[in-house]
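Hi there,

I know you've been waiting on this one. I reran it after we fixed the sequence typo, so this is the corrected version. Both the input and the resulting structure follow.
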Amino acid sequence: MKIVLIILIILSLLIGASLLLPKPEVTEPSELVISAYLFDESIVDPNDGLGDTYYSFEALELNKPRLMAPLVGAGMYNLCIYLEYEGGVVEVVSESYDVQLSISSGDKPWSDSNIDKRRYSSALKIGNSGYMNLNPLGSGCGELIINDDSMNSNRDSYEGREYFLSVNAYDFSDENAPVISAVLCLTQLHDDAENTYKKGASRFFSIELISYERAESDILMDGGLFNE
């Protein structure tokens, strides 16, 4: 009987001690947020919305296409997105070499005043957050030819053409394994003024976040990883 009482007392002490121990601090994983410079959501046809239209950066939602502000005009030069991933790097890649990407550290990196200050490529990285300009090749508007034969060879444009961009977010501690992977789709839309630029050209594109996946479901905790 005494042994049973001793065991019960020990168990009670252990349970009480566990309740007093501080719970490990849970750190929610960072989210990758992709915003784009868009037409007001009330605009259905961009050809009818060029007057006093209000444009703004808005976070994209999965499987919800949105109209981007014109490739030229609206204070922009090329399409523009804003990337956010706290504590890491975001890489955007045009795997088909059909979207010219550019970034600039100057003021208003999206404007035509920064053309000569931009860095151009089919794959670029941004740390933590920043703007990135997109120019679908063959758009006929705001085009800049760079010395890259792989990109310059794919310049035919037409209504309905789709362009895909891979977006990967990496933690600074490991830039080899993406924590989040996403895919953006740009689709060329009809432009009433296409002949002002070239046959088949357009200032207008929709953008859609068609995929967003986290590499694993682990929650980061002080001292290591805890699997949900």
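Quick highlight: Confidence is low (pLDDT under 50) at residues 17-21, 218-228.

Best,
R. S.
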